[in-house]
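A common beginner's mistake is to predict each chain separately and then try to dock the pieces by hand. The better habit, illustrated here, is to supply every component at once so that their relative placement is modeled jointly.
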Amino acid sequence: MQKATIQLETLTCPSCLQKIDKAVKALEGVDKESVEVLFNSSKVKVNYDEEKTSIEEIEKAITALGYEVLKSRVKAL
Amino acid sequence: MQGFILSKKNQITLISAILIATGFVSIFAFSNEDVFNLAFITASILGLLPIAIQAYQALRVKVVSIDVLVTVAVIGAFLIKNYEESAIVTFLFLFGALLEQRTLNKTRSAIRELTEMAPEKALKQMPGGEYEEIDVDDVEEGDILLVKTGAKIPVDGLVLTGEGYVNEASITGESVPVNKKKDSKVFAGTILENGTLQILAERVGEDTTFGKIIELVEEAQDSKSAAERFIDRFSRYYTPAVLLLSILVWLLSRDIELAITILVLGCPGALVIGVPVSNVAGIGNGARKGVLLKGSEVIHAFSKVDTMVFDKTGTLTIGNPEVAEIEVYADNAGEVFAYLASIENESDHPLARAVLEYIGDVDFYTVENTHVVKGSGIVAYVKGHRVAVGNLALMEREKVHLSEKARSDILRFEEKGNSLVLTAVDGELKILMGIRDRIRPGVKKDLQRLKKLGVKNLVVLSGDNQGTVDTVASELGLTEAHGNMLPEGKAAYIKELQSRGRVVAFVGDGVNDSPSIALADIGIAMGGGTDVAIETSDLVLMNSDFSRLPHALGLAKATVKNMRQNIFIAVGVVLFLMVSVFFSEWMNMSIGMLVHEASILVVILNGMRLLSYRLR
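With all components supplied together, the output reads:
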């Protein structure tokens, strides 16, 4: 399992959180319990199985919603 | 394409504004309806693009977002050929979002400033001995790093060589430079103001003290109280409900205008944003002033505290015993002080340190035949004189005669809560010292402030004897004082207070008081940025600064009040709009959108006030 912290552009609408949350959870290999979208710090924290998905996949799912990814950090759990 | 449109949102907003202005000029100045319509139709379509894209993305992940409501409303307005409404609503929505982003950034600025203090680069010693700049994430424990003047110290570590002055404000909140030399500990995120240090990395990244502080604050700003979680759940059903309501109204009344107006008015903006905004601004204010609040729940609980329990040593007092009173019975006082200092210099007893500090610099004599009497003191020979330093029991053992005056002095010192150190030379009492732990300067004023803020009971619990504790309590005006207490006893007492319905905050040094800190409704650690303090408590006062406690309490109360105001504004606005749409003539989509966006800005600006909160 990998733990990713993804820094997004400033989030302004709380309904963005819901969108990002659902989009990330919809990916295969993502630990649904671990998904956390932080409004004020504009970050997404997620654990995922690197054999089923990748940080690029997760970033793509978020960018597809129209939110820019500034930086991500991945650490092995 | 979608990404391109979204990234050009600001430009679209601007063009939209120009088009709307052109439209109004052409109709009012030239009565030209064609240009008017053309301008407004273009503005509507252009403005709707980014909103519709966001709506589509939301629907794809099965979320009915505000964008969906606005998109449906604008399309509806377009269908009934009300281009003026559709253009103005899209513009206001985009412009509002822009302003929200700007102002939100401001409210978050305090915390961002903190996280931006995190080090990014480090100079690492390579196997060849030369230094190379690497990313701080790549530094590992055991690496040897070089820090130059003006640079941030990248890790928690130990100075190997070099000397310098470090500003530790990021850890302690105190921007007085601290001298560092070989074997000094240095902390990540602090700044080397001058000198050069070679350091050994002991803890890196998130494990450093600074890393922990950042993590704590970041988590705190997004932590949610029960009320907020309720609002979250509520808003999840609220937007779809508004959509349903509008469809229902349309089916029943066949009035598209009314139906789409409801869509716009029902947007929940201010309600969902109001509370997080107060939260982040309140926590940000605290972080700037050396008060770390662990989240919204803590703020709520802390604002309700009516009883504060303090540990004595190290919390109300400095935790560093000092000579408070002295009586000298000798004529050759200077000589006796030198004997005393020479003997104490060989002891590592805490009272000995206090005595030495009091006497200051003297030339030490040779001390011979030192004999330590356990629990009483020391007997030794200096320059051929038999010198006894210790408590009353030692004086009795040495058969020292105590005069009438000495006896009354001893009684007086004891009543004031002093520990006694007597010095006798050749069986004659020469010096009497009363040593006690000094009360922190300013604590009395701070306690009065706490009382003014509504803390009814101020309690001190201590392991010291009852007399000492009572002295402190009466000096500081505390309401209760209990001595001879072990850590378990303190915890049990807090439980008892809670069972009497009190909301209890416990203030301790965070090391030996962890049971009490964990048990109290709010555990407060006076941590000089120590790990234990950061981890076990709900609230950390950086650099053990007691004077920040009243500010923390005032801030918690102000933050809770601010949240309530924001909820009140948000709910009030939605109710006002909904009532107006049914009972007034003048309410329409554009006005609705204007009021709605304005209410969002009002709650953000209201939250921002907390950034400059100051205790009066």
